[in-house]
Amino acid sequence: MNFLRKNANEFQSGYTGYYLKPATCPHCGVGTDAVATAREIFAYSGSSNLLLSAAKCTGCHKTFFYANLRESGNSDAEMVCIYPDRKLDYKNETLEKVSPRFIRMYNQALNSEKIGDIELAAIGFCAALETLIKDYAIDELGKPAEEVAVKNLYQVIAEYLLQKDLINTPDLIRILGDDYVHYEDRYPVHDLVILKGYMEIFLKQIEMQYMISHPEPVTVEG
């Protein structure tokens, strides 16, 4: 999470030093200098105070809350909490049966995206997708684990999802490259949007194939 340093005298005349204000909306993930709608000071412990704030995002116009702790003898305040928090809860019962680890990794990538860590989010989405496809290949397609483990994301998409033509499109060549971890600056926001669009195709494909292989029992009355 990125922060803006703001003068503490916005809370009370005579306050020196600074407090921290979220520079990214916890609702929509857009960078913002949100408009303050309320400020309060509460005694916390000894001569320490909690600086509580409410602010409205200039992008989605939703209100969020945050608190700074101003310690005794320290003029600069420290961020201690934000509401809503950054956690998201992506759920997919079918894909969780294929790979519980994928669900955890996908949620971590979503959290990174929401707080504006685009490069980490992109790497996380790719790692989550690779984990899902490999688990699918081993558990559903019966491929040997030692064979699957050494393949990269490009290879598992092509070989186990049978998407050789799709991964040879210019967008995916640019975004994935030969491997998804590179030293060079990568993954602008535009590429992340494209990556997530392709991921939806792959996730739906695995979900559909799993449902075909594991049909729900049909109860016939009569």
SSE inventory with pairings:
Elements lengths: L2 E5 L10 E5 L12 E11 L2 E9 L6 E8 L7 E6 L9 H6 L1 H15 L3 H22 L5 H5 L3 H8 L3 H4 L2 H7 L12 H25 L9
Antiparallel strand pairs: 1-2, 3-4, 4-5, 5-6
Helix pairs in contact: 2-3, 3-5, 3-8
Question: How would you describe what is shown here?
Answer:
The protein has helices at residues 93-98, 100-114, 118-139, 145-149, 153-160, 164-167, 170-176, 189-213, and strands at residues 3-7, 18-22, 35-45, 48-56, 63-70, 78-83. The protein is of the alpha+beta class and 222 residues long. Strands 3-4-5-6 form a 4-stranded antiparallel beta sheet, with no helix packed on it. Strands 1-2 form a two-stranded antiparallel ribbon. It folds into 2 domains: 3-83, no CATH class; 93-213. A hairpin with a 7-residue loop joins β5 and β6 (78-83). The chain starts with a strand and ends in a 9-residue tail after the last helix. The protein is 41% helix and 20% strand.
Summary of the model, kept short:
The chain is of the alpha+beta class. 41% of the residues lie in helices and 20% in strands.
Strands of the biggest beta sheet: in what spatial order?
3-4-5-6
Looking at the chains present, what oligomeric state does this protein adopt?
single chain
Query: What is the number of helices?
Result: 8
Taken together, the total number of domains comes to: 2
Quote the average pLDDT.
Answer: 85
Task: Give the topology string: H per helix, E per strand.
Answer: EEEEEEHHHHHHHH
Number of DSSP strand runs: 6
Largest sheet: 4 strands, antiparallel
Distance between the termini: 60 Å
